[in-house]
Structures are given as structure tokens and as C-alpha cells.
Design brief:
5-stranded mixed β-sheet; mainly beta; 0% helix; elongated; Immunoglobulin-like; 37% strand
Length: 134
């Protein structure tokens, strides 16, 4: 019998001494990180965000992604029950010197943020040619 895994959103904890300015929940987006030959690919699930509501910053080697989600308001209706939590998204990553920080690219489609983190020249794998000795 196949085993199913239930996924739930995890609320982000504000760093010690940091207060939020919006009265909304903040979630930690689920992320996949895939290593390719010349870059890392980071995919973050952030339902409800688009290119105008996501902010990506890089400061002191810390890459922070923040997505702002406005709750959907239905005119002339009152929410009676909800199982899906609506809120913002925030997650931070410390980048090593193996990433070329000047060439990071970002795009978003259907609530999935895609970051391409190019490897620096020194971090790329290099093949060493082998020659036969006589």
C-alpha cells in the first residue's frame, strides 16, 4: 500500500528582537535546490505571489526572499470556515563564495519562484585531460 505524506505550511519565526509591520502570518516556503554543472537552481513554492509581490535581497552573503500575499476578499460574503492559511512568505539563505552573486537571476510563474544561482568560475568542475606516457 502506498504511503501518503501530508504537507502543511510551516510558520516562520521572527528573528530575536525583530517585529513585523504587517498583521499577517508569515510562512516558510518549501524549497527544492538542484545542483547543475554550472549553477544551483532554487525552486520555492509561494502560492499567491507574482513578480510584483515578491522581493529578493542580497546583503552580506544572505539571500532573503519575501513574498507578500493579500487575502482574497469576496464581496457580500463572509468566510465561515477555512483550512488553507493565507499569509506572507519569508526565507533566508547564506551564500558561499562559490556563487557568482552578480549574475543571480529570478523569475516567478504560477506561485513558484525560480532562482538561478550561477557558480563562480573557481567552483565549477574542471576536467583534467589525461595523456598516455610512452
Amino acid at each position: 500500500m502506498a504511503e501518503t505524506k501530508e504537507m502543511q505550511k510551516k510558520e516562520a519565526q521572527a528573528p530575536e528582537g525583530v517585529e513585523t509591520t504587517r498583521a499577517t502570518r508569515v510562512y516558510v516556503p518549501n524549497v527544492d535546490i538542484i545542483e547543475k554543472k554550472d549553477h544551483l537552481l532554487l525552486l520555492a513554492d509561494m502560492p499567491g505571489v507574482d513578480e510584483g509581490s515578491v522581493d529578493i535581497t542580497l546583503e552580506k552573503n544572505v539571500l532573503t526572499i519575501y513574498g507578500k500575499v493579500e487575502p482574497e476578499a469576496h464581496e457580500n460574503h463572509r468566510l465561515v470556515y477555512s483550512e488553507y492559511g493565507v499569509g506572507d512568505y519569508r526565507r533566508a539563505f547564506t551564500l558561499s563564495d562559490e556563487i557568482n552573486k552578480e549574475k543571480i537571476e529570478a523569475s516567478v510563474k504560477n506561485g513558484v519562484l525560480k532562482l538561478v544561482l550561477p557558480k563562480a568560475e573557481t567552483a565549477r568542475m574542471k576536467r583534467i585531460p589525461i595523456r598516455a606516457e610512452e
